[in-house]
Specification:
Strand order of the largest sheet: 1-2
Radius of gyration: 22 Å
Helix content: 55-70%
Largest sheet: 2 strands, antiparallel
Number of domains: 3
Order of helices and strands: HHEEHHHHHHHHHHHHHHHH
Distance between the termini: 49 Å
Shape: globular
Number of helices: 18
Strand content: under 5%
Structural class: mainly alpha
């Protein structure tokens, strides 16, 4: 997204917005993360300066067209007195989505239900409804709504968003009769989305991931590997223009192999990224993950130490130490693994985002329990 924002022609918004970028990992941003519920990266907000209420919110990467639509609805949300009921419900849903997704879904449903037949924001409301159902773990309504609405949509950014959310809802549960029915409708739409030039890479990555997860959940690893190979071929064909883009490609490579595949397949690319980004701890972290997965334990530990030397924030430090502990445990070095986990726990308690902090602390404490038991 930084690359898009650097190149995007947004002159028509001059004077309407004050642009602010906040790091997910900086302690000074904790108050914002807590108040507005930024639980994923990237997440975009338009905030009314008069009362600090959210007038538009959207997680995930966007195309230029989608970004412009997002800014337009955020600007219009500031003037709620001029909004029709459907638009007010849409704005209310955006304000609730980060922290109360179930309530946001109800607001988006109200927007769809009360909207005039020719309302231009209907597809936006439908896509947002499916997103809210996904975020609130309402898997069956999410998948079924996505399958019904996407089929009727124009093949635009809202179609892609709807399909992506619906596929995640199918992939999030074990196979059931309703998942198979929804998948028969959604998978052809997902494959169609992969053919559309408007489908940004983050959404392409999500589609491939869900196709792989769904195949693995059905004990069909050959099909999962087929989708994985196709995805990796796409990633390998991209020549990154910036370090941010290079890091995003590496994240996608690791996510691919973590589902199913051979970590040796992507280690050369990851090591190449670490060489050209010597100050980037995440590059070292990705190498460590795959060296550990390939059972190259000494190399994994060395990569963890390189990452820790590159001044990661609390989240990055905690993550690297957890990988280090897993590697030490695999080598049978239980006492050292426990020490690394204890350090990871201290770092995790400093993570600015409350949800990220709580989930990391809980996971590390769970990892510490068997380590402590085996040490007794």
């Amino acid at each position: 997204m930084r690359g898009l924002l650097a190149k995007a022609d947004l002159d028509r918004y001059a004077g309407q917005f004050v642009w602010l970028e906040l790091s997910y990992d900086e302690p000074g941003n904790r108050a914002f993360m807590t108040k507005f519920g930024a639980n994923a990266t990237p997440t975009f907000f338009v905030i009314d300066p008069h009362d600090q209420h959210v007038t538009a919110m959207q997680p995930g990467a966007m195309s230029l067209e989608e970004l412009q639509q997002f800014l337009d609805r955020g600007a219009s949300g500031v003037s709620t007195k001029r909004q029709i009921p459907a638009e007010a419900a849409l704005t209310r849903g955006d304000a609730l989505l980060a922290e109360q997704p179930a309530e946001a879904a109800t607001s988006y449903e109200d927007a769809v239900r009360t909207a005039p037949a020719d309302w231009p924001k209907r597809e936006l409301a439908e896509a947002s409804l499916v997103q809210a159902l996904q975020d609130s773990n309402q898997w069956q309504p999410c998948a079924e709504t996505a399958a019904a609405e996407a089929l009727r949509m124009k093949r635009d950014v809202f179609f892609v968003r709807t399909v992506v959310s619906g596929m995640w809802c199918v992939a999030s549960v074990d196979p059931l009769p309703w998942t198979e029915t929804a998948l028969r409708k959604l998978q052809p739409l997902a494959e169609e989305a992969l053919t559309l030039p408007i489908t940004v890479r983050d959404h392409r990555d999500s589609i491939y991931r869900t196709l792989m997860y769904i195949s693995v959940n059905r004990n069909d690893n050959p099909t999962a590997l087929k989708w994985g190979d196709r995805w990796l071929a796409e990633l390998d064909a991209i020549k990154p223009a910036t370090d941010d883009e290079r890091a995003a490609l590496d994240i996608a490579r690791v996510e691919n192999i973590q589902i199913v595949g051979d970590p040796e397949r992507i280690l050369p690319e990851l090591k190449g990224s670490e060489r050209v980004m010597p100050d980037n701890y995440i590059a070292s972290l990705r190498v460590a993950q795959m060296e550990n997965a390939a059972k190259h334990y000494d190399s994994a530990l060395a990569a963890c130490d390189r990452g820790l030397a590159r001044s990661p924030g609390a989240l990055g430090k905690s993550w690297l130490l957890q990988i280090k502990a897993q590697t030490l445990q695999a080598e049978g070095k239980t006492a050292q693994a426990r020490e690394a986990l204890e350090q990871a726990l201290l770092a995790a308690k400093e993570i600015p985002n409350p949800k990220g902090r709580d989930s990391n602390v809980a996971r590390i404490e769970q990892m510490l329990q068997p380590a402590e038991n085996s040490a007794k």
